[in-house]
Structure formats: structure tokens, C-alpha cells
Amino acid sequence: MYRIAPADPAQPQAMAMQAALSATLAAMTGDSGQASFDAGDVRGAGAVFLLACDSEGAAQGCGALRPLQPGVAELKRMYAAPGSQGLGAALLAALEQQAAGFGYRQLWLSTRRINSRAVQFYLRHGYREISPYGHYVGRSASICLGKELTC
Q1: Which of 38-42, 45-49, 61-65 has the lowest average pLDDT?
Q2: Is the entire prediction scored with pTM above 0.85?
Q3: 42, 94, 117, 138: which has the highest count of C-beta atoms within 10 A?
Q4: What is the distance between the terminal CA atoms of the chain, rounded to a whole angstrom?
């Protein structure tokens, strides 16, 4: 069982989860992904950073969403620690619920194509490939995915 709740991305446990994600991405893709994340983007209206902790209070994962354009939020910094069975799905569901509560109709994200585990995870959860957006346009290493949210 996990407790998933909003947290400041600069909080120590949140920083530890982001560092674990960055290390995982850097080992897999050669890029930590940190350059495409601004903590300020997930602190304002229509944004949230979620931290997932186990029953003993130890952080096990995180995820965030930020406003992207009217009706659309972007998922950022999704991470579930190895061995945290079911946490990724729980975090994604919590972020989708938050997004719907903020009034978003769609969620978009980008990940590296080489990160096949993440791509398959999102596809299993109803995300589909969409046209590249923002700074992902023209980047063949990236895949952009999106999902329509139900009210």
C-alpha cells in the first residue's frame, strides 16, 4: 500500500526520487532528462508534484503534471522504484485524477523510444502516439504519447 500525496519537488524525498529517475534515464539513454524539467512548472495553478511513500514513510516514486496548453497537461518525472509492484499504475491514476480535477481534457508526455518499458507501460494504460510537440518536434529519439481523459 502506498500513500500518494502532493509534495514540493524540492523536498528531500522528492529530490531523492528525481535523482533515482535521472540516474536510471542516464544509464539507459545517456540523458538524465533533467534539462526538460523545471520545478517551478509544477508548483503553480493547474500543476502538481506527487510523491509516493510506502507504509513506513519511505519514498518509492514520484510524478508530476504541468499545464501545457488550454485543456492539456504534460506528465513529467514519472518514476517508481524497482520492486514497487503496482506503484507506476497507481501514480499514473493519481495524476490522471488530478488532471481531470484541474479540468484538463488530455494528458501528453514524451519519453525516449529506447525506453521501451515506459512506452509499453503508457500504451497499456490507454496512451497513444501523438504528433511531437514543443521541443520534441524533430527529435526522432523521442516518442510523444497522449490520452483523452474521461470526466
Answers
A1: 38-42
A2: yes
A3: 42
A4: 26
